[in-house]
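[recover] target loaded
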């Protein structure tokens, strides 16, 4: 320490919110909101230039749960979650402190204010002075000899005079005034009816809070006296809540807070990545230097180990060692944790590091019913452990000691709930639901990163997103397979019976691989320009989907049983007609027997044999034969349709319905190329929309008594996106005017007036409109409309002649796919199209159709995901607590709510969904309310 140390303490948490609300919206080059980051950065740069002390630190809140929550559980409990545009900025502000070379300090269980109070006390004890950079009223109790404050926005000092002017008492009495008045912002109760003037007058008259409360019974009878007597205990609790702790252990010693010049290369690189050119210029680094360092950052992105997480700051010297460990540390030597003490050691280590990969092992693949067999942890590449909980063992392989599951979860819980530690999962939604089932609510776990979604946000369609595939691709490592541990076929054993030592090798490696993947994939979000997509859509969507899966949707089992019986009876009737058309009986569900009848016995043309020599009889083959006028393929297609509906929906839904008559589908987040969600167990995405059978199946999805289902469906969203991205004036005008887009198209293309247009002409225009989105061919359009391919080609040519911008768009997108290997949605999602370079013309043309459609379908997926992320908070804020989002199917969201709130829920859903994106044409959402899905839809 120097002879006269001067410590500058920055209230990072307090400044974040002030800057966010004080500055207009701003975004980085990657599209991430950064107004609070920019405000913090300029404040820190100015501080270093004008107010630098001998020592400096930035203090952050680690979590909402502190010792005050134990004293008074309602403390800050009512505070809403941060605004969506602020959430990704927390981690970036921590990055800023690291870039400036300033210690960023946080401590679980304590607020930033307590850290500030303790550091201020410590520097005064060391003979130094302290400046607190904040305007937070709660910190004003610290002002006094050697301790002052500085308002970071106004750049004005706050001393004892300013504090007394605000509170009416000296700084050392501020906490007692606050205890009397309470604070609704933090949910500090205080004494009802006591405002700031009364509180300060009482403290000035009696001296202390205890003396005020002791004197209250003898005061003149009044409402104020009654309140003081009745709420005396609340006032005492309030004093405990508002009084700052001044003696907590300092996480970083004072001597390590010595001010140092920032590494200009590191700082310039970070400022350039953020797009803060004005700060670069003010600091004398210049645009050229920033640009050069930005290019260097892209080339060396792999060396960055911390990304933009909530992890504690690492010194620049530590990064290469972590990066080296990611690629060189062996995948062996993992620990089996069998005692509470050993598990606590791993948890403590994770809290010190600030990052922890977590993986669970279960008895099954349904996270809502599977039991937790064990879990694994890893905070350092190459070091991981497995905690077995319910392994059964066998006679020749006893399990050895295992922790009681509840004891293990109680030790793990603080780590999972610690807001200062980033938890990393692969397919986080699954593990979070498993932990929820085990007794740790998924909503309490955070913050969370998901390596599956980190990869998917950058490489949808390029490859699979499974952990093993990503490990081979990014780590050049082949993980131990599940089959090698459990066996295959009849020899397979449950994971619970796998020897614990063998289970440790497999399970701990999963956590280790997940951590290493995070180190590789997190930094590339920026270089791949996928940070905004991940932070604003994919990552926050996971908890929303988890809630939907947990809640499920009610079904009418009796209606499902009636449907199943009806489908079976109709299939039996169809079978007789099929046998007559075939000339004999056969097993209709057997592709081999059907192929022999069609191509050997009936000698129909167009058959193709597979590699095994059997005739192909998939739906495309049968549809081609049906288009040629053959009766048997038509009948088989109809029979297959009913059989699929029966097996996939009516029978399966009866099997999959929980005891509460609810179905809990599983949403797959990283399957499609375009970003669309898919669902399984059951798959609710493929219920026919325009058929009687599809309507009847939807009728079986119901609302419980007193509740209603609300459907909110984007109207023609892909056509609207086409009008937006292709820039077609006529289509834009039609949507802007709310015209019938298909009638308008028919009028434009076929030269017929809008008034009195016949339905057939409109139907043809509709088929072209939707077909163009999918790159439809003349043959496909002709088959759909039942006209010759030549006539269909004339329609398509007329369409492109009227709307040449659409053809230009299609050619442009195909060229982008050929050049880059991917296309972009309007919101920056990369949709890879690997088949665009295929030598086979048929496969290449299919890929071209994919490329044309991906920006539209992917754009629609981005929009509805944006809405889904915003809707839960918006519904709660509107007082619609009864509303639950239960399903997402393509462009439709389905809600369940109390009947009395159904109309309001529909209106709020429409408002949020229509505002989810700003296009050059309006987004329109159609809503409906019903007792079942068919009525609402």
């Amino acid at each position: 320490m120097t002879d006269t140390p001067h410590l500058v303490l920055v209230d990072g948490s307090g400044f974040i919110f002030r800057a966010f609300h004080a500055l207009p919206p701003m975004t980085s080059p990657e599209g991430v909101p950064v107004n609070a980051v920019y405000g913090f950065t300029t404040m820190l740069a100015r501080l270093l230039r004008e107010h630098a002390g001998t020592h400096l630190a930035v203090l952050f809140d680690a979590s909402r749960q502190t010792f005050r929550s134990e004293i008074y559980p309602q403390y800050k409990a009512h505070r809403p979650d941060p605004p969506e545009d602020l959430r990704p900025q927390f981690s970036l502000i921590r990055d800023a402190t690291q870039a400036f070379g300033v210690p960023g300090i946080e401590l679980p269980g304590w607020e930033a204010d307590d850290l500030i109070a303790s550091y201020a006390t410590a520097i005064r004890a060391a003979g130094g002075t302290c400046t607190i950079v904040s305007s937070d009223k709660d910190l004003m109790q610290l002002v006094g000899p050697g301790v002052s404050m500085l308002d970071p926005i106004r750049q004005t000092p706050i001393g004892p005079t300013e504090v007394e002017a605000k509170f009416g008492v000296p700084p050392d009495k501020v906490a007692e005034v606050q205890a009397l008045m309470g604070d609704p912002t933090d949910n500090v109760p205080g004494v009802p009816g006591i405002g700031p003037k009364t509180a300060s007058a009482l403290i000035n008259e009696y001296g202390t809070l205890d003396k005020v409360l002791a004197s209250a019974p003898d005061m003149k009878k009044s409402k104020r006296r009654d309140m003081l007597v009745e709420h005396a205990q609340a006032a005492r609790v309030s004093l405990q809540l508002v009084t700052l702790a001044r003696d907590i252990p300092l996480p970083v010693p004072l001597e390590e807070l010595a001010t140092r010049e920032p590494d200009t290369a590191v700082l310039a690189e970070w400022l350039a990545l953020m797009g803060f050119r004005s700060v670069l210029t003010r600091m004398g680094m210049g645009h050229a230097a920033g640009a050069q360092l930005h290019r260097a950052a892209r080339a060396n992105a792999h060396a960055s180990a911390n990304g933009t997480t909530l992890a504690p700051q690492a010194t620049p010297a530590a990064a290469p060692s972590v990066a080296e460990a990611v690629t060189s540390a062996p995948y062996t030597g993992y620990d089996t944790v069998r005692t509470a003490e050993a598990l606590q050691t791993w948890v403590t280590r994770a809290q010190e590091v600030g990052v922890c990969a977590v993986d669970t092992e279960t008895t099954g693949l349904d996270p809502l019913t599977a039991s937790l067999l064990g879990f694994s942890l890893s905070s350092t590449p190459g070091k991981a452990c497995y905690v077995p909980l319910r392994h059964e063992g066998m006679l020749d392989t006893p399990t050895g000691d295992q922790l009681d599951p509840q004891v293990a979860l109680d030790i793990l819980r603080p780590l999972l709930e610690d807001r200062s530690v980033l938890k990393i999962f692969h397919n986080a939604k699954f593990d979070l639901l498993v932990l929820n089932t085990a007794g740790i609510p998924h909503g309490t776990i955070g913050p969370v990163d998901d390596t599956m979604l980190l990869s998917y946000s950058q490489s949808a369609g390029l490859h699979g997103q499974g952990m093993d595939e990503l490990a081979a691709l990014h780590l050049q490592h082949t993980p131990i397979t599940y089959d090698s541990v459990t066996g295959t076929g009849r020899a397979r054993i449950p994971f619970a019976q796998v020897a614990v030592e063998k289970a440790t090798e497999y399970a701990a490696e999963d956590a280790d691989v997940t951590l290493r993947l995070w180190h590789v994939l997190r930094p590339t979000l920026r270089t791949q320009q996928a940070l905004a997509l991940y932070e604003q859509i994919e990552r926050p969507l996971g908890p929303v989907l988890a809630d939907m899966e947990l809640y499920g949707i009610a079904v009418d089992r009796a209606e499902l049983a009636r449907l199943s019986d009806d489908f079976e009876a109709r299939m039996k009737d169809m079978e007789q007609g099929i046998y007559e058309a075939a000339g004999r009986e056969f097993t209709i569900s057997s592709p081999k027997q059907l192929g022999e009848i069609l191509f050997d016995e009936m000698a129909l043309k167009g058959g193709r044999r597979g590699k095994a020599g059997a005739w192909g009889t998939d739906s495309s083959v049968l549809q081609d034969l049906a288009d040629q006028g053959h009766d048997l393929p038509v009948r088989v297609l109809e029979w297959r349709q009913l059989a699929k509906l029966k097996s996939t929906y009516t029978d399966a839904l009866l099997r999959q319905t929980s005891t509460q008559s609810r179905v809990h589908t599983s949403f797959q987040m990283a399957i499609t190329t375009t970003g669309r969600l898919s669902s399984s167990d059951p798959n609710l995405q493929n219920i026919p929309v325009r058929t009687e059978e599809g309507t009847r199946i939807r009728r079986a999805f119901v609302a419980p008594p007193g509740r209603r289902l609300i459907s909110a469906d984007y109207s023609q969203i892909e056509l609207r996106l086409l009008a937006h991205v292709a820039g077609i004036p006529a289509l834009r005008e039609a949507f802007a005017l709310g015209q019938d887009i298909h009638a308008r198209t028919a009028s434009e293309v076929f030269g017929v007036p809008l008034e009195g247009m016949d339905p057939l002409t409109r139907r043809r225009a509709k088929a072209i409109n939707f077909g163009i989105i999918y790159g439809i061919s003349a043959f496909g359009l002709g088959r759909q409309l039942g006209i010759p391919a030549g006539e269909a080609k004339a329609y398509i040519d007329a369409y492109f002649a009227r709307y040449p911008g659409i053809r230009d768009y299609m050619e442009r997108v195909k060229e982008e796919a050929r050049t880059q290997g991917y296309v972009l949605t309007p919101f920056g999602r990369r949709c890879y199209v690997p088949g665009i370079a295929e030598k086979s013309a048929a496969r290449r043309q299919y890929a071209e159709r994919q490329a044309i459609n991906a920006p539209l379908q992917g754009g629609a997926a981005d929009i509805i995901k944006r809405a889904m992320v915003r809707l839960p908070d918006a519904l709660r804020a509107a007082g619609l607590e009864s509303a639950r989002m239960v399903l997402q199917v393509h462009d439709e969201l389905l809600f369940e709510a109390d009947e009395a709130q159904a109309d309001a829920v529909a209106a709020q859903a429409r408002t949020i969904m229509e505002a989810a994106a700003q296009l050059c044409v309006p987004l329109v959402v159609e809503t409906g309310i019903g007792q079942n899905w068919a009525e609402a839809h």
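[recover] notes: The mean pLDDT is 87.
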